[in-house]
């Protein structure tokens, strides 16, 4: 018979074993076999930066809720396996000058809908302008938040329509962003743009920022979970030359001498596969790495002027997908899947997705069944941290 001390030790061992068993079951629930082999153009690229953590409740369809600490390390056995040579190489980009000309960029338009009925951004105060606030939150994550800020001096650029108020521009500059004011691009008569997308074609002016070699464009409604510096080293972001053997006679403007556009396919349902299906051809224009050039900007605007050249329902996105269609002269390429996710669930966060694309300030997007409410709470916490940071900085 065991002594009381031995019995206590045995009990602790059994309890620890039980906890490990439950943890393993949760890992199996989150594990996707494709996670270990997903690649961009056949070359695996891992994320850099610190691992995200959050005390949260995991809720997946058909399973009871499990409460525990979610981290990129315990989400998937394959994610742990990938933290070898590639991950170390990506993380080694420590604080050095931004020698290759690279930048993060967002777009701010004065009259884009705020998702508060028909009210326009230009009619709201700064605190009520959802996209302006989201742009500030994005900038805080990229420039100041310790876990996600650039560690290679990559600047944050905001391309702003000239109709954005001076006070908003000044606030963004005080936050640390570089604001580039541009003239708006008017929609051609044939482009019957929905109200929520009016003015969005001015976003094409991000491609005119030619002082940079590569830029990562992000819509303002992003929660950044991992540092993004290393995305510019992704296999998919290699600068290419257009294909010469593809018919391009419909376009008035000539092709640029070189190009690069890399992104991820647009998810259309809130419940979807992750990693996404690499055969999906419709790229999401809310997260894309590109090579700026005046020639490609003129190529895009020539397509825009040609009547019915693309579906106007999602104007900028469909224009870019036409210009960079896979059977065309300048096909877009898939970035490594962990860089981003649209309509993300808590599973994608736990698997290590770096940029989670959703309007988390809207209750309708905080779906409990998919754990989106958890990510939404984290975004709100970052917003609170941003406001406190700038108050302390005499903002």
TrEMBL record:
Signal peptide: none
Top-level taxon: Eukaryota
Polar residues bias: start-end ranges: 54-65
Record keywords, A-Z: Membrane, Transmembrane, Transmembrane helix
Membrane-traversing stretches: 12-31
Chain residue ranges for the region called Disordered: 44-76
Official protein name in the record: Glycosyltransferase family 8 protein
The organism of origin for this protein: Letharia lupina
